[in-house]
Amino acid sequence: MFAEFELVYHNQYNKAFSNPEKLSYAKKLWFSNLRHIQPDRIVAATHRAIRESEFLPTIKGILKYCEPNNNELGLPDSHSAYLEACRAPQPKAEYHWSHQAVYHAGRASDWFYLAGTVEHSAYPVFRRHYEGICERVKNGETFVMPSQKAIPETISKPLSPDEQRQRMQKMRDELDI
């Protein structure tokens, strides 16, 4: 990582780590803050930082680049998710969602509100819920779709009037009414 930073951010690197003592201390500091992350993830974050930043990244910047982005997690962008939530047919829980987070954000935003409110008012509400859920997904939380109740194997028939009277009498006797 430091070798790549030196090649890409030559002047900034030499100014930040002007002597071997500073460089040694910086490497220890970076190691202590990044040791919980897999090495291949750090390398990928380094390459991402190089592609996206004009300036030598900080530890916080590399930590941010280590976080998976929405595309890696299969999460659509917020506007696409909003359109999917608005266009999904009923019953919502049975629809094949691009990601469960879209369903949960739509449910949190209220399906009726999304269907009956213009986009410039409803989209910010949906986006707030969706971005919160995306953060939870990035932190490792998994969302599951609600289970649908199955039709019972046996369907009970209504009792005849005589059977109803007998059961009521039995209940009255048990309760001493």
Number of helices: 10
- Rg on CA atoms, Å: 29 Å
**pLDDT under 50 segments (min length 5)?**
none
- Report the mean per-residue pLDDT as an integer: 90
Roughly how much helix do the residues carry, as a percent range? 55-70%
Q: Please provide the ordered H/E string of secondary-structure elements.
A: HHHHHHHHHH
What can be said about the biggest beta sheet?
A: none
What does this structure look like?
- The chain has 177 residues and is mainly alpha-helical.
- Helices cover 63% and strands 0% of the residues.
- It is built from ten helices and no strands.
- The protein has helices spanning 2-8, 10-16, 20-34, 39-52, 59-66, 78-87, 100-109, 111-116, 119-138, 161-175.
- Helix 6 packs across helix 7.
- The radius of gyration is 29 Å and the shape is elongated.
- The relative contact order is 0.08.
- The model has no long low-confidence stretch (mean pLDDT 90).
SSE blueprint and pairings:
Elements: H1 2-8, H2 10-16, H3 20-34, H4 39-52, H5 59-66, H6 78-87, H7 100-109, H8 111-116, H9 119-138, H10 161-175
Helix pairs in contact: 1-2, 4-5, 6-7, 6-9, 7-9
Quick description:
The protein has helices at 2-8, 10-16, 20-34, 39-52, 59-66, 78-87, 100-109, 111-116, 119-138, 161-175. It is mainly alpha-helical and 177 residues long.
